[in-house]
Amino acid sequence: AISVKETVPNPYYGAEFRHPERSHRQAVISGKYGGGVFCNLSDGVTVMCNYSFHYGDSDFRIGDRVMLVIQRYDDDKKQIYGKIVAKC
Fold first, then answer.
1. Residue 4 in 3-state DSSP?
2. Chain segment 36-61, per-residue pLDDT in tens
3. How far apart are CA 26 and CA 18, in angstroms?
4. Residue 50 burial (10 A CB sphere; 0-12, 13-18, 19+)
């Protein structure tokens, strides 16, 4: 049996060229975890975000559109980290 995940390329690959560090991107909040949120970019990339200092968890809901800045890539974990800087 093959999972659906294995039939499509991982959007992480090449993301550092499409979304360089310090670039601003619009995203949609797809989930929350202790202290941060998962944000989805339009090309399927998921960014693990913290809130900017002037925002808190109660300011955002799943499905909200936000502006984030890409902060760093972790190639070992294949994860992207960012910070939410505005609500769209």
1. helix
2. 899 999 999 999 999 998 888 899 99
3. 13
4. middle
Contacts of 83 (CB under 8 A, 6+ apart): 49, 50, 51, 52, 68, 69, 71
One-letter amino acid identity for 75?
D
* HSE value, Cβ hemisphere, 13 Å, CA-based, for 14: 6
Per DSSP, what are the bridge partners of residue 46?
A: 40
Residues 1 and 25: their CA atoms lie apart, in Å, by 36
- DSSP, collapsed to helix, strand or coil, labels residue 88 as coil
Tokens of 80: 């992207």
* 3-state SS, residue 8: coil
